[in-house]
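Issue: copy button drops trailing tokens. Both records pasted manually instead:
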Amino acid sequence: MKIRILFGERLRWKLSSTPCKFWTSFRRSFSVINVSFRIPSETERNDDDKIEPPLAEEIFKSGPKLGSYKQGDSTFYNLIKNFADSGDFMSLERLLERMKQEKRVFTEKIFILVFKAYGKAHLPDEAVYLFDRMVEEFQCRQSVRSFNSVLNVLIQEGLFNRSLEFHSCVVGKGISPNVLTFNLIIKALCKLGLVDRAIEKFREMPVCMCTPDVFTYSTLMDGLCKENRIDEAVSLLDEMQIEGCFPSPVIFNVLINGLCKKGDLARASKLVDNMFLKGCVPNEVTYNTLIHGLCLKGKLDKAVTLLNRMVSNKCVPNDITYGTIINGLVKHGRAADGARILVSMKERGRNPNEFVYSSLVSGLFKEGKSEEALRLWQEMIEKGCKPNTVAYSALINGLCRDGKPDEAKEILLEMMNKGCIPNEFTYSSLMRGYFKAGNSHKAILMWKEMRNNECVPNGICFSILIHGLCENGKLKEGMMVWKHMLGRGCKPDVVAYSSMIHGLCNSGLVEEGLRLLNEMLCQETESQPDVVTYNIIFNALCKLGNTSRAIDLLNSMLDQGCDPDLITCNIFLKSLGEKLNPPQDGREFLDELVVRLSKRQRVVGASKILEVMLQKFLSPKASTWERVIQDLCKHKKGRAAIDKCWIDLFG
């Protein structure tokens, strides 16, 4: 028989006598056993070797029988650490019970180990329960260290209200909080949106002889920024410096992020200059935040310039940096520029991920550059970048936009064969593609396939199906889907409402369409009628010769804050020229519309109608022209509006 002792793990023995006496006793006790010490090879190690704890409990159970070896408290500590690290809480509880029976001394660091293990295993209730047992059951005095450990477990699990209750209970029993305690409580209060209470706690710190540190300030600043109280957060920056707390890059990043989200890029850039003055070097988080803010404001050229500045300052852009700029360019219709950033990204040794590729593929398809999009997709595959559901969905949507739904369906089959589960966006793209191609039968089959694959349709899926059915004259089927959507508790959006109204009006059911319009007006913001919805009703009423009722509805539309567009003007001009006797050219109608919009301070809407009049050679009155020009100049948009007008008129 051989006993193998693996020296690959650290094995510590606490001896009650000298080492020589121990090994003499050891050899006598195991004289019939051949003990060999060697390190097994990787091929010789079985699964038990890999999962066996570094400190085998059986060795320590047999230790006292050797005569000269006695287990010490450090032995138990190592066993507890072993069980805690491996998450073996049953063995851990048995060991604690054994220590209690042997009247061992329990130190606080033992419990802190267990608390951390409970936190790692997402067992906050067990951590609180063990903390409550420390004094009475294990005769171990609780201090702020163990208290903070449990408090941190609760906060890491997102149990912020529970952490506040735990804090109130324990502090009331005599444990004095330290800086970490205040930091944790301030974090919990900020997460709950109770920033004023967090400030109260912050002001209590000097009373409790606790000095706020960088983490205190950064947590409170982050909470203030999320509540859109940027000025108060910035004022804390001056306060912390007066108190002798030196700001870190994290502090500046929190404030810069808050200012960028607010759209105040001027103050954000000043903070970056302040960083340099304080000796804080901006890191990739600083640059990424600024680039994201610039992209949100549409200042993409400045974002690209900042990227180059970032590289020149020896700060390496990461995937987030490139992804933010490329996504921003794509959203503003500049996918080709995004593709150039992709090339720069690869030249700098960064491999694009599937999200960057899918964003570019989608953008290129939207801009009608399908060949470049497919080339980029092929490049992604050749680079070994495994496409996910988002990437596949972008390709499918692009092919459907390009009028190739059958090819998109083949990509769907490939996607499913490779284990990617299509989502509602994937199916809705295919449904839209087939409806656009005039194949409503296959679109309905995609709807059925989506339901069979247990993909729950959302409001967009219902809207596409209703729009397609009504567009193809299948009002009855569209109404069935409408009722099914309402029965599922899915609220129709403006597209679904407009599609149903369009289908009803095309079938001559204008009154039913008007009833749906009135229903929309009672709904939430996302379901309010837009100019497309009104144009559908205007067109239906004017075709029936009910121009006066259409004008009444136009007045109601203006009162709702919705501006008319070119289609609105064309509908009324056609009706005034064909349905009235004598016919009118619509000059007076449009002129009055411009004045009414101008009186409501809707300068953009008024200038658009004025632009329509000029395109149709219907000169406005001098007073109307003067009013609009004055309004445009007041808003400092006169030159831009005039330039745009000339470009639209003469190219």
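Record 2 (pasted manually too):
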Amino acid sequence: MSNQETTLKISGMSCAACATRIEKGLSRMDGVEEASVNFALERSKVVYDPSKTKVKDFEDKIEKLGFKVVNEKVEFDVAGMTCAACANRIEKRLSKMEGVSSANVNFALETLKVEYDDSLVTNIDMIEATKKMGFKLSSKEMAQENIDHKEKEIEKQYGKFLLASILTLPLLWTMVTHFEITSFLYMPDMFMNPWVQLALATPVQFVVGAQFYVGAYKALKNKSANMDVLVALGTSAAYFYSIYLGWSWMQAGSQGMPELYFEAAAVIITLVVLGKLFEVRAKSRTSQAIQKLLGLQAKTASVIRNGIEMIVPIDEVIAGDVVIVKPGEKVPVDGEVLEGRSAVDESMITGESIPIDKSQGDHVIGATINKNGLLKVKATKVGKDTALAQIVKIVEEAQGSKADIQRMVDKVSGIFVPVVVVFAILTFATWYFIVTPGDLRSALIPMISILVIACPCALGLATPTSIMAGSGRAAEMGLLFKGGEHLENTQSIQTVILDKTGTVTKGEPELTDVSVADTFSEGEILHLVGSAEKNSEHPLAQAIVDGVKAKGIELEDPSDFEAIPGHGIRAIVAGKEILVGTRKLMRKYSISMENAEAYMEDLENQGKTAMLIAVDNKFAGVVAVADTVKETSKDAIQRMQQLGLEVIMLTGDNQRTAEAIAKDVGLTKVIAEVLPEQKSAEVEKLQKQGKKVAMVGDGINDAPALAVADIGMAIGTGTDVAIEAADITLMRGDLNSVADAIIMSRKTMKNIKQNLFFAFVYNTSAIPIAAIGLLAPWVAGAAMAFSSVSVVLNALRLQKIKLVK
């Protein structure tokens, strides 16, 4: 075999000595004819004998020397996978390709990430390799063209299910009338005719069921077995044996009625297609979080260049640019305030509802909203370096990572199919050569009985029917699971992390406390303060106004109004001068606070924002605004703890505020002062301790943590991005739904295990009976049908579940 040459990109070299060390290390490897490293270009050229070594060995060697090989990365969408076994086959095939360092398939998201050496392998090579396996790759650049492929798949599976149902119903009717208990039911003679049954069953078998034959062929071609093999094998046995019986019946003069099994094959295919329809529906809404995150970013920015203000696309803003942000506009990039004062709503990034006052020297975050003042901002981070871009990156990495899900059925099916086939062949041979030498029919019947009794209809139904019933009942409770894998994994959760704002609390500030000086009445003060704040755009002012109106107090327009940045407001109402704001504001106007300091500190210790009030230069009282706890949070957290779950609150708030709220809802564990990009790291810390973690949140800043967690739960009243990034959406916005989701998952998984017991034990226990010829094919068909009915009826019990609050 002739020598080959490859070029590797290397990072981490600090001097020419590093290059020399790499050269020596590579040159000493067996099979390497020549190795040279260009320090300036950070590249290594290696000539080698491919029969003795390969590129992956060079990469490993370079990494052992303390450097890193920089590979190209590409991400594909994958179409055509039917189970986890398909994902494993793609990974194995691509990993064996020369130049591919790693291949990672995410079956749930239907994506493939590959690291590769572009000098040895190309995207086209990878696409062609997987195409030969029966799958279709499309790069993310082409993803827009295929954005609705899942919707088309839903329509296709629904059409197949509808066709199969119409054709199967008469066949099912004939099977029911065979039983003595239902023999009184009317059955048209035409449906009993073998050729009519053949005409009804054939489209189901080869039109609707074509996908199973294609899938089985691809699996067997690649020396593996999946559910398609099981479905194709079982239905074909029943279908072709029925044709054989029909032909024999005709040869015998059409006397009596033959025992046919067309209905068994048709029912299996119909119900499995129904399961596939559910699976496609469950996956159809994944992977939209990234697009929605990017949609938050401002599209343009007002930039001052050469003394002229101009509007430029966001991509053209560079670090150091001075950006003008007007009231109501999005802050386009991360930066530092040079001039101006304003309150900035950072809830879409931080999750905290109360806007933050910004002035010279303060930092602002891209995609946040400037509420009420003009700001001049110096851009410090642009493009991929902004906080929003980092959140997008974290979500992408979390969603693209390989899910550690190995389906119980997929594992067993790989062994089950060949074992059953081999056993059936051995049984046939035993009967044909030993028990009844030369008697084909006597040998064929036990073999067919084994294949029919071991038919995978119950196996194929065991998981999807339970998931359909469980998720359907969950949906009625306001719990939307985005796929069977999430319904499965939720039952193993040990720790629940709750975001504070919008999850434990309501997520919007409210007027909570009013205290007035002895010389004033509460109604008078609320009228004056509400009227004074009426024209303010500040969210805290709006909370006061809404709170006053809720008490039925009428407001009037102030005759004069002045916002004092960083201090509060001054207004004239009914001829009286009203001051509302901070301690600094009171001191500025030389107003004695008359022992209000201790009361204010007490309010602040409770996590509230307190504001002082003065009327005509006299201290008049204190009002406080806070993000209040949801009425159901305390009881819901208690329910979680009763389920044996560790419950932790996670927030960007300061420790004092966080602990005050945690105490109010019965929590002892709090992680406070966490930045948006650190939330996912906190989840990973707990995971490294061996805990299965669920994250519950509603803000955009929660999206990375929701994606990293073993199970992400989004409050349905929260942001679309959090909902899309999560595995479960809690539509009611109530933390009781967290406990409900875990209970539903536990009950559903218990139901699935019961179904698998029916599917495997019931069917396989009859295989020895069939092997010795004591089980006629029609009895095997009835037993197979009964096992399917058992599975379906057991799954339907999930629809009756009532959760006790």
